[in-house]
Each structure stands twice: as structure tokens, then as C-alpha cells.
From TrEMBL:
Protein name: Aminotransferase class V domain-containing protein
Organism whose genome encodes this protein: Candidatus Gottesmanbacteria bacterium RIFCSPHIGHO2_02_FULL_40_13
Keyword Signal: no
Alphabetized InterPro entries for the sequence: Aminotrans_V_dom, PyrdxlP-dep_Trfase, PyrdxlP-dep_Trfase_major, PyrdxlP-dep_Trfase_small, SP_NH2Trfase/AEP_transaminase
Family under the similarity heading: Belongs to the class-V pyridoxal-phosphate-dependent aminotransferase family.
SUPFAM superfamilies in the record: PLP-dependent transferases
Domain Aminotransferase class V: 12-323
Cofactor: pyridoxal 5'-phosphate
Pfam families registered for this protein in UniProt: Aminotran_5
Length: 365
């Protein structure tokens, strides 16, 4: 697969669109209260259930990813309730901050940038906390390129005496990385259209377990636009309460068809292979990886900026001379790393081109 963009766009969202998706998003608008819209929404939700590996409700919110993370807090908790948040970077910090701003009591456990959450620490922290209503993890920390092994932590959360909800931000992994919601007992799972789903920005997907619905009934955080009670009512008609991002839905419908054709397992394998090939290519050209083999993300790879190189200049050289658009660090990794995204519409050729651009631009500098 090669992206049909003037430059090799390898930032972690928005990601390039396949030609079929580009065609779909340019379609004429339709009535979002009409039959053709309802058919599309129904099909999209069914296809998302296949990739979320769930029979739970999934709702589409017209928002960027952060809106989905806000919805995941305000719908299930009341001010003063205890939420434990395990964070490994900036996006985890932001989610914890959302919970704080809406009045939750947040215990945030921060891990060193570039490393994953450990089972031992989850055991230790949850073992010492009582009155826990929810536990938050970022599946894939996009800011560092670290993948958390949710399957290691889910059983610990599930066996906690308080029976807290397990909430996962998989905005930059789901669709590319295996995360079986029902098998792991995840209660709230959030993703966003502009990442591995090969669709434009504009839609968040949020899946909600039966147990989370029970907690929703008594939760009292303020909410209006993101109140999932309204989404559930409108979902009965395969509609959304407010005007949805119709063009993004057209795109997501087309991309899910492509994804189903490729098959879940093949997609997961492709991303793992791309990660491994890219990492070995980076080592070969003498650059250093920021994340260890065991924590490395299948969708984002971080490279340490070599001593004496200005990261900003390097990104500019890559962009202007080699038409390769990569991302810098964020928060505490700003100026320390550059990041290559490889999620969704991406193949070996795209990443081989990134490697050539990296090697040549490094020499130029
Ligand atoms: C893991 C993760 N969480 C949250 C967000 C925020 O999403 P958005 O920028 O769409 O609001 C991002 C965006 O890159 C992300 O990668």
C-alpha cells in the first residue's frame, strides 16, 4: 500500500486515506434523519463491533479523541469518587486532568517516559486502594510509542474487591492492535476515526459494557452534549442526537469495508511486521530507538534525536527536502525524539522511503 499524498504523511493522525475512502468522503450530503443515513450508521456500528471484539453498545460522537475521553469520565462517575490512573505520557496526563476537572479524586501513578506500566505496580497500587470506582489506562501512548499490555492488567482490575470499571484509551491503537474488549472485560473503550481506522478526523467511537451502564445511572457529573443516555435513545433509530460528521461517517464506512476484507488478524500481523522492520532499519542506519523491544508500539516508533542535531531542523529538512512528514516529541519528550507513525493505510514501501529520508537528512545535517 502506498498513500496517494504529495508527501509521505507519517504523523500519528490524521493518517493518509486510501483512494476508496477519499472517494467516499467526497460524496454528496444526505439527510441524517433519513433511511440511507440509518443504514450506513447501522453497518458501521456492526463492523466496529467486529474490530472492538464486543457485543456491547458502541456510539459515534462527533468530536476529536479528547471528547471521547471526556465522555468516558462524565458518564460514569460522580464528583468526589476515586479514579486510579496509570499514565506513561502526555495523553494519559490529559485524561487524568479531565477526571480532576470534573471533580473526581484522582490517584495518578506516573511511569518514566518511554516505558510501559508494570503488572507489579498495578498490583501494588490497587492492592493499597479502597473505594476505587474506575481505573484508567492508555493502551498506546502516542507521545512515546509505548504499548501497554492491557491483557496483563485487566485481571488485576477485575479481581479488585471494589469491582471498579476498567476504562481504556485506545485512540491510537484500536483497529491496528488486538484488544478483545469482551474477553478482557473492558468496560469503556474509546477510539477515534483519524488514527488506525483510515478515516478523516471527526468521529469518536465509545463502547460501553452493561456494568458501565449500571454505573451511568447513578453518576452525577455534569454533561449535556456527551450524555450517553441520549445517544442510546437515538441509537434505537440508528441515529445520533446531534448532527453527525456525515462525511467522516462515509469515510469510515468505506475504510471498515477495506479492513474487513483484509481481516482482523492480517491487519494486526501487518502492523507488527512493519514495526519490527522499521525498528531494525532504524538501527541499521545508526539511529537509536527510544523504546525497548518489549514495550514498542505497533503503530508509532520514536527515534532519539542524535547529539548535536536540532530536532526542529531535522523535521524541517525531512519535510522540505524529502517530503516526509514526521512528528516531534510532546511534553517531556519535546526536543528529545522524533516520531514515525505507521497505523492504518501504510505498507513496507512507505516505511522504506521514511528510512531513506531519515538516513539522507541525517547526513545533510
Ligand atoms: C492516545 C491518545 N489519546 C488521546 C488523544 C487526543 O485525541 P485528539 O487529538 O483527537 O483530541 C490522542 C491524539 O493523538 C492520542 O493519541
Amino acid at each position: 500500500m502506498t498513500a496517494n499524498t504529495p508527501s509521505n504523511l507519517r504523523v500519528p493522525g490524521p493518517t493518509p486515506l486510501p483512494p476508496e475512502v477519499l472517494d467516499a468522503v467526497s460524496g454528496q450530503m444526505i439527510n441524517h434523519r433519513g433511511k440511507s443515513y440509518e443504514e450506513i450508521q447501522k453497518r458501521v456500528i456492526e463492523n466496529l463491533q467486529y474490530f472492538f471484539q464486543t457485543e456491547n453498545d458502541i456510539f459515534l460522537l462527533t468530536s476529536s479523541g479528547m471528547g471521547g475521553l471526556e465522555a468516558a469520565i462524565v458518564n460514569f462517575f460522580s464528583p468526589g469518587e476515586l479514579i486510579v490512573s496509570f499514565t506513561i505520557g502526555e495523553f494519559g496526563n490529559r485524561w487524568a486532568e479531565v477526571a480532576r476537572r470534573f471533580g473526581a479524586k484522582v490517584v495518578q501513578i506516573k511511569f518514566t517516559s518511554g516505558t510501559a506500566v508494570t503488572k507489579e505496580e498495578v498490583n501494588r497500587v490497587l492492592g493499597s486502594q479502597r473505594g476505587v470506582k474506575g481505573v484508567l489506562f492508555t493502551h498506546n501512548e502516542t507521545v512515546t510509542g509505548v504499548l501497554n499490555k492491557i491483557s496483563d492488567f485487566a485481571p488485576i482490575v477485575k479481581s479488585h474487591p471494589d469491582k471498579p470499571l476498567l476504562l481504556i484509551d485506545s485512540i491510537s491503537a484500536l483497529g491496528a492492535v488486538d484488544l478483545p474488549m469482551d474477553t478482557l472485560g473492558i468496560d469503556v473503550l474509546v477510539s477515534a476515526s483519524q488514527k488506525a481506522w483510515m478515516a478523516p478526523p471527526g468521529l469518536v467511537m465509545i463502547a460501553v459494557s452493561q456494568k458501565a451502564w449500571e454505573q451511568h445511572k447513578t453518576s452525577s457529573m455534569p454533561r449535556y452534549y456527551f450524555d450517553l443516555t441520549m445517544y442510546k435513545e437515538f441509537a434505537l433509530k440508528n441515529q445520533t442526537p446531534a448532527t453527525p460528521a456525515v462525511a467522516t461517517l462515509f469515510g469510515l464506512d468505506a475504510s471498515l469495508k477495506l479492513m474487513k476484507k483484509e481481516g482482523r488478524e492480517n491487519i494486526y500481523r501487518r502492523h507488527l511486521q512493519l514495526r519490527d522492520d522499521l525498528r531494525s532499519g532504524i538501527r541499521k542506519i545508526g539511529l537509536e530507538l527510544f523504546v525497548s523491544e518489549s514495550d514498542a508500539s505497533p503503530t508509532v516508533t520514536s527515534i532519539i534525536i542524535p547529539h548535536g542535531v536540532d530536532g526542529h531542523e531535522w523535521l524541517k529538512e525531512l519535510r522540505e527536502k524529502y517530503h516526509t512528514v514526521l512528528a516531534g516529541g510532546m511534553g517531556d519528550t519535546k526536543g528529545k525524539i522524533i516520531r514515525v507513525a505507521h497505523m492504518g493505510f501504510v505498507g513496507k514501501k512507505d516505511l522504506d522511503e521514511v528510512l531513506v529520508a531519515l538516513e539522507k537528512s541525517r547526513q545533510d545535517l
